[in-house]
């Protein structure tokens, strides 16, 4: 098992290298160029140099005068020393900007994820146990409504009902107007209150898929021979489902959950934008649109690393829950 | 149970009687109405014991099926999987049930365990009397809570597919331990009763855990598993089919059941292992003094193992009797056909005999002999309603117009 993990980690580094190269090549090739935008701006200033002169100078400053391959190795040379450079758009070190924004997104993602799993899995199991009953249909309809609703539409409805009509929550932002005057606990409550609606949006829109997935898997498990054996042993229905059934349903669910780990950090661009949260989703989007190569490189690479880590964790968890795939 | 499902699908595909949306909607609604009624009946709490206890007709029997009807309410109509089955399983004897796929053999045995797929499958009519020693249950009316105590404890079951019948994520030892723990109040009376009150949530003490493990190992030894300590710690996927079936048998006999239902226990195994498994089963049956209900396609197995034979066709018993009677003088044309269809050592034939035609559509069965259209000995009387059961001898009976009661009374 240890050798397996070491091998996988080594492979991951190799994969990351190529992923980084591809991302870099794409970033250099896309039509949005930070340097061009700046050059155009400067050239328009009264009494300034011409556009071509500006762009030559700027290309040199930002290291864009060399080819893609040479530029990539230049980038990697500094990264290996632990320096991801400064963000062009935000004018601060990449890591600092990242640290500033990631926790908003992580809180949003992880809390919604935990709520999603703890609602979707039991509901899916319930629907499977009572297949074709009213409960099953009700759960399915709610799930499908959730899947079908666009985030921006649902978020807007939530805002209309709970902010404008009822006035329970504020429309935008992560903190209230009097945040600075509050004590520690009050600050926390203020933050929490602002997170209710974004989290509700993500949970309700995202819950359907996992619930349907759990239901399908549980149904398959419940129809299998070993469940009949468990019943024939004289076990109570509760134990049959919660012990014999659940352990087997867990196998496919674990893969899904392992795969969603990068999602916790990816940020939710639409939700963050709608609720005015300065999370990583919005920040990364702005950086990308602005042609900010250092920040985009860092963010995308970070996601790639998380994806690789997520699959590795899923594979390890898989072996934990399913004795048939344990590697010797 | 699987057999019937396949049949339903077949009829769906081949049936020329197209079901319109309205008809199928009507069927589903009607089904739901009926099954809801049964489910309500099933879900009642605190059913008085007098309602589901009864008396055996013959004290020599451990189980008596009396006019059992088990129906499946499917979307294409009611499938009468078991339609008026009556037969007995005497103490300490082996009763073989034969018949082709989909004739209701498995559903009969699942009805006895109340494991028929609900809510579609329901015991509609009839009694299944089971002698539990201190009282006699009518399984058809016994509530599920009471069944928990019967299943695995007094009646246990060995399934057809050893490859999939064990839970893949638990160790062999855990799975056998579980059934012993669950029903161990009967086994380790004095030690355990002091500590426990409820049967379902037993948290065994350290000593009783050791005793349970010892019992499991003993069971594994009994079924001929050489390295029981090692197998105890193995997962099902590490064992071969034959070994897994041995584990299933160990699990089935662990609580000294009065009746073991073996639902085609050797179908999925290769021939050399089949003989071993059957031998183990017979040996253990005598050792723990229980009865066996043996469901199989294999007439050879029946001839070798069973004391009584029940031949089923399309949900009904067409012939039953002792092995000697049924094999020597098969009376029903279907049984005769089955006998003719098996390969023999001393006969040399180009092609094996097969009964012409196929099993009728299980939905909307007509009220005449179901075998009529395939029968080579059809007579005018066969156009009448379903034939009565006729006793050819005290133990041998057949449902066929070729035989009349008077004829045999004179014998």
Strand fraction of chain B equals: 15-25%
Beginning-to-end CA distance, first to last residue of chain A: 6 Å
What is the overall shape of chain B?
globular
- Going by helix content, strand content and strand pairing, the class of chain A is mainly alpha
Low-confidence stretches of chain A: none
Q: Strand fraction band of chain A?
A: under 5%
Number of strands of chain B: 13
Strand order of the largest sheet of chain B: 7-8-9-4-10-11-13-12
Tell me what you see in this structure:
By secondary structure, chain A is mainly alpha-helical. Chain A is built from 14 helices and no strands. Chain A has helices spanning 2-29, 34-43, 51-61, 68-80, 94-129, 134-148, 151-165, 184-222, 225-232, 237-259, 261-266, 269-274, 280-289, 293-321. In chain A, helix 5 (94-129) crosses helix 8 (184-222), helix 8 (184-222) packs across helix 10 (237-259) and helix 9 (225-232) packs antiparallel against helix 10. Chain A is globular, with a radius of gyration of 25 Å. The model of chain A has no long low-confidence stretch (mean pLDDT 85). Chain B is an alpha/beta fold and 411 residues long. Chain B is globular. The interface between A and B is medium-sized, with 22 and 30 residues.
Indicate the topology:
The complex is a heterodimer of chains A (328) and B (411).
Chain A (H helix, E strand, L loop, with lengths): L1 H28 L4 H10 L7 H11 L6 H13 L13 H36 L4 H15 L2 H15 L18 H39 L2 H8 L4 H23 L1 H6 L2 H6 L5 H10 L3 H29 L7
Chain B lengths: L1 H13 L6 H23 L5 H4 E2 L6 E14 L2 E14 L3 E5 L6 H9 L7 E11 L4 E3 L5 H7 L4 E4 L3 H4 L6 H12 L5 H5 L12 H17 L5 H5 L8 H13 L5 E5 L7 H18 L2 E5 L3 H7 L2 E6 L2 E7 H6 L4 H8 L49 E2 L5 E2 L6 H5 L2
Parallel strand pairs in B: 4-9, 4-10, 7-8, 8-9
Antiparallel strand pairs in B: 1-6, 2-3, 2-5, 5-6, 10-11, 11-13, 12-13
Provide a quick synopsis of the model.
The complex is a heterodimer of chains A (328) and B (411). Chain A has 328 residues and is mainly alpha-helical. Chain A has 14 helices and no strands.
